[in-house]
Amino acid sequence: MVPVVAGFAAGFETDQNIGGRSVHEKTGATAKKGALGVIVAKRFELDVAGDGVDKNSLEQSLGQLDLARLESMKDQSALV
Asked: How far apart are CA 30 and CA 37, in angstroms?
């Protein structure tokens, strides 16, 4: 994966690899405001966002989610 960084007045966006997964990061320029987004099993989109938090806190929050379990549900019907 080649990291792509786009900067603008309000902050920046970049794609990176966290924990073996492709993650899209959005960070504010002035305040501690950001979001991490990940696609799991080409089916589920998860976003972790916060105000007044740093990137490490967002990464820790993302790491607490059981993405492997969600990935195992990729072939289940949406109707239960």
From this structure: 20
Parse the chain into domains and list their residue ranges.
5-72
Does the pLDDT value for residue 7 go beyond 80?
no
CA nearest to 22, candidates 52, 67, 54, 64: 67
> Any idea which residue has 């938090």 for tokens?
53
Contact present, 37 and 27 (Cβ < 8 Å): no
pTM of the entire structure? 0.77
pLDDT band, very low/low/confident/very high, at 9 (cuts 50, 70, 90): low
CA 63 – CA 59 distance, rounded (Å): 6
When computed from its CA atoms, the radius of gyration of the chain, rounded to whole angstroms, is 14
Q: How much is the pLDDT for 3?
A: 57
Q: How do 44-51 and 21-28 pair as beta strands?
A: unpaired
